[in-house]
Design a protein that fits this description.
479 residues; alpha+beta; Nucleotidyltransferase, domain 5; seven-stranded mixed β-sheet
C-alpha cells in the first residue's frame, strides 16, 4: 500500500492506495490562511504538521497501515518556510498567492540571468523575491535563515528529518537552473542566498528519506517506509491524471486555474508569462498557464450573492453566447499572460437587466477567457495540446466546461468519479520510489464522458474574448 499527502492551501488531503492503485481510504484536515495586510497571505507551518497527523490517524482508523511501503508528497508551491540552524521556524510561511514582494520581483527580473536560467519571469509569488523582501523588511529574521523549504518539504523534514526538495517544486523558486535541474549559484547570490541554505535535490519518483521511527510507531506503519520526492501540486496532479507525455494536458478549475501541458523537452518562453518547470518525473518538463482566481472567483461571487456556488451554476441551463457583461477575474492580480500584481477584478457593462444569473455567467466566462489567454500563450511557444482533461471542483459544472471547450475549440474529457488529483499523484510517486516502477504506472483515468465545443457559439466566444483582452488593456493603467 502507498500513501499520498497533498498539502493544499485550505486543507491537507491524504489517500491510501493498494498495489492496483485502487483507493482504499482517504481523509482531509482543514487549514486556514491569514491575510494580516493587503496583498499578504501566510500560514503557520505547525498547522501543516497537525493536519498531517490528523489525516494519517484518520487513514489508520479506516484501514490498517501495517503494509504501507511508500509515501509521496504534493503541496502548494512557492511558499517561503524559513528555518534556523536549530530547525526552528522563524516566521509564518509566505504563501504562493502573497504579492508583497512585487517590487523585489521586478528588481530580480531585471537581471537577465533569471529568465535565461529559469526559463520564467520572476513572479511576485515565487520564493526568491520573498527572501529579498524579508532581507529588506525583516533583517533580523533573514540573518538567522539556515534553510529555505517549500511547504511540502517542511512536511518532509518532519516526516524524515531530511531537508530535501524535488525538481518540479524547486523550479518555482527562481533559484533553479530548470534546464540543468540543479540549483544555480549565480541566481542564489543575486538574491543574497547560498547553496548551503538550499535543501538537497532529488527527482519526484526517487527516495528522499525514510519515515522517522517515532511517527511510524504512532501511525502503525512499518519501519523504514520510503518517502518519495513527490511534486508540486500541479505536477503531482498531472501524475495522478496521467498527463506525463507531450501532447497531454489538463485544465484545473480549483481555487486557482491552471492549464498544464506535459513536454518531453525544455522549451521556455518567459516573455509569454507561461511557467516552464521541471515535471515530477525525470527528463520531463511541463508548461502551464496560471490564473490566480478560478473557482475562487465563483466562490467570491457566491459569498456576495448569498447563494452557494453549486446553486448558482445549476441555474444556468444550456450554454449561451456571452452577453455584453464582462467580468475580469483578477481579484488578487494575475499571472499568465499579464504578470500584473496590481490589477484587480472588475464587472463591466452592467445594466438594469443584469441579474445574478447574468453575473454568474459573466464570472464563468471571465475565467474561461483567462484560460483562453493561457492556451494562446502556451501554444505560441510551440507546445501542442492533443488531449485535454478537466479536473478540480469547477469541472463539476458542465456549463463551465463546455464554455472552455467552446472557447478553446477542443473537446474536454471528464474522468469517472474519483480522486485523481495531487494526493493520488503523490501516492503514485510513493509507489515509484518504493518499487522502482516508472512512468508506465501513471495511466490516465477512465473517462466518463467528453464535452464537445458548441461550434455554433465559437465566434461569439472569440468576440467576447477579444473584448475581454481590450478591457484589460484599458483598465490596467487605472490601478
Amino acid at each position: 500500500m502507498y500513501i499520498g499527502l497533498d498539502l493544499g492551501t485550505s486543507s491537507l488531503k491524504a489517500v491510501l492506495i493498494d498495489d492496483q492503485q485502487a483507493i482504499l481510504a482517504d481523509a482531509t484536515a482543514s487549514l486556514e490562511a491569514t491575510r494580516p495586510q493587503a496583498g499578504w497571505s501566510e500560514q503557520g507551518p505547525a498547522d501543516w504538521l497537525d493536519a498531517a497527523d490528523n489525516a494519517m490517524q484518520a487513514l489508520g482508523a479506516q484501514v490498517s497501515l501495517a503494509a504501507v511501503k511508500g509515501i509521496g508528497l504534493s503541496g502548494h508551491m512557492h511558499g517561503a518556510t524559513l528555518i534556523d540552524a536549530n530547525g526552528k521556524v522563524l516566521r509564518p510561511c509566505i504563501l504562493w498567492n502573497d504579492t508583497r514582494s512585487a517590487a523585489e520581483a521586478v528588481e530580480l527580473d531585471a537581471n537577465p540571468q533569471f529568465r535565461a536560467l529559469t526559463g520564467n519571469i520572476v513572479f511576485p509569488g515565487f520564493t526568491a523575491p520573498k527572501l529579498v523582501w524579508v532581507a529588506q523588511h525583516e533583517p533580523d529574521v533573514f540573518a538567522k535563515v539556515a534553510k529555505v523549504l517549500l511547504p511540502k518539504d517542511y512536511l518532509r523534514l518532519w516526516l524524515t528529518g531530511e531537508a530535501v526538495a524535488e525538481m518540479s517544486d524547486a523550479a518555482g523558486t527562481s533559484w533553479l537552473d530548470v534546464g540543468k535541474r540543479d540549483w544555480s549559484d549565480a541566481l542564489l547570490a543575486a538574491s543574497g542566498m547560498t547553496r548551503a541554505q538550499m535543501p538537497r535535490l532529488v527527482e519526484g519518483s526517487e527516495v528522499s528519506g525514510h519515515i522517522r521511527d517515532a511517527l511510524a510507531s504512532r501511525w502503525g506503519l512499518p519501519k523504514c517506509v520510503v518517502v518519495a520526492g513527490g511534486g508540486g501540486d500541479n505536477a503531482a496532479s498531472a501524475v495522478g491524471v496521467g498527463v506525463v507525455k507531450a501532447g497531454d494536458a489538463f485544465v484545473s478549475l480549483g481555487t486557482s486555474g491552471v492549464l498544464f501541458a506535459a513536454s518531453d523537452a525544455y522549451q521556455p518562453d518567459a516573455a509569454t508569462a507561461v511557467h516552464t518547470f521541471c515535471h515530477a518525473l525525470p527528463d520531463t518538463w511541463h508548461q502551464m498557464g496560471v490564473i490566480l482566481a478560478a473557482a475562487d472567483a465563483l466562490n467570491w461571487f457566491a459569498g456576495i450573492s448569498g447563494k452557494p456556488s453549486a446553486s448558482l451554476t445549476h441555474e444556468l441551463g444550456p450554454l449561451q453566447a456571452p452577453s455584453g457583461t464582462l467580468f475580469l477575474p483578477y481579484l488578487g492580480g494575475e499571472r499568465t499572460p499579464h504578470n500584473d500584481a496590481q490589477i484587480r477584478g472588475s464587472f463591466l457593462q452592467l445594466g438594469h437587466d443584469t441579474d445574478h444569473i447574468a453575473m454568474t455567467r459573466a464570472v464563468l466566462e471571465g475565467v474561461t477567457h483567462a484560460i483562453r489567454d493561457s492556451y494562446d500563450a502556451l501554444t505560441s511557444t510551440g507546445t501542442r495540446i492533443n488531449r485535454l482533461i478537466a479536473v478540480g471542483g469547477g469541472s463539476k459544472s458542465d456549463y463551465w466546461v463546455q464554455a472552455i471547450a467552446t472557447s478553446l475549440g477542443m473537446p474536454i474529457e471528464l474522468p469517472v468519479a474519483g480522486d485523481f488529483g495531487g494526493a493520488f499523484g503523490a501516492a503514485r510517486l510513493g509507489m515509484m520510489a518504493a518499487t522502482g516502477a516508472g512512468v508506465e504506472i501513471a495511466t490516465p483515468p477512465q473517462i466518463a464522458r467528453t464535452i464537445e465545443p458548441d461550434t455554433n457559439l465559437a465566434a461569439a466566444f472569440a468576440q467576447a474574448h477579444a473584448r475581454y483582452r481590450a478591457s484589460y488593456d484599458a483598465l490596467k493603467g487605472l490601478t
